[in-house]
Amino acid sequence: MRPLHILSLAVGASALQRQISLSPTASCPWRLPPPQLACSIDELDDLSSAILPPRPPSPPPSKWEGPHDCVNQYCIFSNPGFADGRGIVTITTARAIEKLKAIEQTRNIVHPPNPPPYTIAPIPAKGLGLLANTTLHRGTPIMRHTPAVLIHRSFLEHLPPRRQHALLDAAITQHLPLTLREAFLAQMGHFGNPHKISDILITNSFQMDLGGDDNHHYGNFPEVSRFNHDCRPNVAFHIGADLTHTTTAVRAVQPGEELTISYLGMFEPRAMRQQRALQAWGFACTCSQCGLGEGPAAKSDGRLEEIARIEGAMADVASGGVTPALLRRVVRLYKEERLEASVAGVYTLVAMNWNMLGEEGMARKYAGLAAEAAGGEGEGDAVAMRELERDPRGHFTWRRRVGG
C-alpha cells in the first residue's frame, strides 16, 4: 500500500449445517449388523459430533482493563471484547477513557460485509491493494471497522519520541489481541522512522475526535490501510460518532477494478497534489487524473477554481448572483471532475440554496442526495438534510434569497 499518513478533513463462508431425520425403519448412515436398523440416541449423539462443525467460540465480553502502564497522564487501556470481540488498545487520558466507554455503551454493533466484496492482490507499482470481486453499485458498503489502536494526539505530538516508544511497544505487543496485533504489524511504514510501531501509526492513521475538549486521537484501522490512493477514488470513507470507519462505493465498480480512496485534498490543483504526495508520502502520483496531458490538466484545474468560487458564493447568504443556473453548473462541474467521493458537501449547499430560492422540489431532491452521500444516517449533516427533505418550508433557509 502507498502510505496513508494521517488523514484529516475522510471472510468467511457460512458453515453448512446438516440435519438428519431418521425414522425407525430408516437405514443408519453407517454400517450396523442386522437386524438393528434404527439408530439409538447415543449413536445419534456420536454422529452429530462427528459431522457438525464445532460452534465458533463466543467473543469475550466487553471489559475495560487498565491503566496498565503510564507516561505522565497518558496510560494504556485495553478491551479484548470491544466491538463484539474485535478488541482495542488505547493510549489516552483518564478523562478520555471515560468518554470512550460512554461511546461504547451507545454504539450499535455493525459487522463488515461477509463475504467481503474485494480480494487483496498485488497491484503493479503499488504493492498490495484491493480488487473488487463482484459488481459494486453506488452506496455499496465495502468495510466497517472500529479502530484497533487509538492514540491520544497530544501523546504523539508533545512527548519526545524516546518517552513514547516503550509505551507504544507495550500497548501493541502486550495488550492488543493476537489477530489484531498481527494485522497491525503487517502494515507498512513509509517515513523511515526506526521505531516500527511509530512509523506504522504515522503512515496509516486517521484523525478522530471523541467529542469534548482535548479528545482528539489518531485511530488505526489495519484493514483500511490496504486501500491505495487515487485523486479521483471510487470509494469514500466516513468515521461516525461511534468510531466506526465505513467505506462505500461512490460509483459503479466492475469485478477486477481496484478500490481506492484519496489521501490528498481532491480540490487542489494537480501540481500541488503531486508536490504533496512526493514530499509527504514519498511517491509520485500516477493516477488517471494526474496523468492528464497539459491541456486537459489545465482545464481540470480551471474547473476546480470555478467550483471554489461558486461554493464561496453559495455559502454566503448575503451573496448575490446565486441562481438556478449556477446551482446546476456546480453539480455539472463535480460530475466532469469525477468528484463523486466528495459530493456530500456540495449537495448540502445546493439543497439549502434551492430552498433559499423557494424551490421546494429541488431542495428535497438534493437534501435526500446529501443525506445519502453523507454516509452516516442518524448523524450530523445527514440528520440536518433529512429534516430539510421532510419539511423545506419549515427550514430556516426557506426563501432566504428571495425575501419572505
TrEMBL record:
PROSITE patterns assigned: SET
Record's Pfam families?
A: SET (PF00856)
Q: What InterPro entries has UniProt attached to this entry?
A: SET_dom, SET_dom_sf, SET_domain_protein
> What Gene3D superfamilies does this protein map onto?
SET domain
Q: Where is the SET domain?
A: 116-264
PANTHER family recorded for this chain?
SET DOMAIN-CONTAINING PROTEIN, SET DOMAIN-CONTAINING PROTEIN 5
From what superkingdom does this record's organism come? Eukaryota
Return the protein name. Answer: SET domain-containing protein
Recorded hits in CDD domains, A to Z, give: SET_SMYD
